[in-house]
Specification:
341 residues; alpha+beta; Ribosomal Protein S5, domain 2; 3 domains; 5-stranded mixed beta sheet; 7 strands; 28S ribosomal protein S9, mitochondrial
Length: 341
């Protein structure tokens, strides 16, 4: 009986060992299969991405233009140093104005058209500006406003609105404190204007429609109308241009009083080719024109008479010779002292 029990236990033990061996072999087989699958998938993960021919040509053109501008800039710097050595100046402090003066001295020209005269300017001014590459190798654009087709223009409008929102927030905070904008610091646009459409296109390197430029002017006027616009004066000055640069530097002479109590101004050494003349204008007067103690018939040719008439017409245009408060039919006398060199 005991032998029979021992035999049954031995058979059960062998059966358990056989089942364990089968489970271990199956696990090893599955592990080997998965490992082989991972090894086969590795080369697919490093598969290179293909670039279209249009994208490749676009990137090559952008790269060629960048290399061309770098070469031109290098040649300009070399020419600038040679020119500074010829003029005996320091190349590090040799400015563009010095370059223009040196070119005018070394290559004198009597051509009437200034654009036809010899010049040496930076390549950025000679060659039209072009946009840099706007995509990477995968075709992804660099600019976040690329979908607008004019990213630089709409980015500028976005910046203007950002400045306007900052002023709104500032106004709200100061009003909560009971403070108001200083009216003495209001920005005065006298003598300046917004940059023109052509200048804006050159700055943005984008073609703009008239309605788009009008939108730019409107949003800038809205910004300048804010009571706290002086807080962003530097930003506003970037989009303005001066109107009167030369007239602001002209010093207007003050009138003098003669023995009869009339005001007069005398301008000496008025130049006209080889002619020189002194002009005296008196207010109030009779409107007479005296040229070396003679009338306008002092000039025999019609052209000098017309030039004097143009000067008198300018006085009429500005209302100087039609002032009702003046004495006599006209309000000034013009006395010319004319001589030929």
């Amino acid at each position: 009986m005991s032998l029979r029990v021992f035999t049954l236990n031995l058979i059960k033990a062998n059966k358990n060992v056989f089942q364990n061996n089968q489970w271990i072999n199956g696990a090893l087989f599955r592990t080997d299969r998965f490992a082989s699958t991972e090894v086969n998938a590795a080369p697919l993960a490093v598969k290179t991405q293909k670039i279209s021919k249009a994208m490749k040509a676009y990137l090559e053109r952008a790269h060629e233009h960048d290399q061309f501008m770098k070469t031109q800039q290098l040649e300009y710097q070399i020419g600038k140093r040679h020119l500074a050595n010829m003029m005996g100046e320091d190349a590090e402090t040799f400015t563009q104005e010095d370059i223009n003066n040196a070119i005018e001295y070394l290559f004198p020209s009597g051509l009437y058209e200034k654009k036809a005269r010899p010049s040496m300017r930076p390549p950025e001014e000679v060659f039209p500006a072009r946009k840099a590459a706007e995509f990477d190798e995968t075709g992804r654009p660099f600019h976040s406003f690329f979908y607008t087709e004019k990213p630089n223009f709409f980015k500028m409008l976005y910046d203007i609105v950002e400045e306007l929102n900052k002023l709104y927030d500032l106004e709200e905070r100061l009003l909560c404190r009971g403070q108001k904008a200083d009216p003495n610091q209001k920005i005065d646009l006298t003598g300046v204007a917004w940059i023109s459409k052509d200048q804006l296109e050159l700055r943005l390197v984008e073609r703009l429609a008239d309605i788009e430029y009008d939108n730019f002017v409107n949003v800038m006027n809205r910004l300048i109308a804010h009571p706290f616009s002086y807080k962003c004066k530097a930003f506003i000055d970037e989009h303005t241009r001066p109107l009167m640069t030369q007239s602001a530097q002209v010093e207007i002479p003050k009138p003098q009083i003669d023995a009869d109590g009339r005001q007069y101004i005398t301008t000496y050494e008025c130049l006209r080719k080889t002619a020189r003349g002194d002009v005296t204008v008196r207010v109030p007067g009779t409107g007479k024109v005296s040229i070396n103690s003679q009338d306008i018939t002092y000039f025999e040719d019609i052209q000098p008479r017309e030039q004097v008439s143009v000067g008198i017409f300018s006085l009429l245009f500005y209302g100087i010779m039609s002032d009702p408060s003046s004495i006599g039919p006209a309000s000034c006398d013009s006395i010319f002292k004319y001589f030929q060199e």
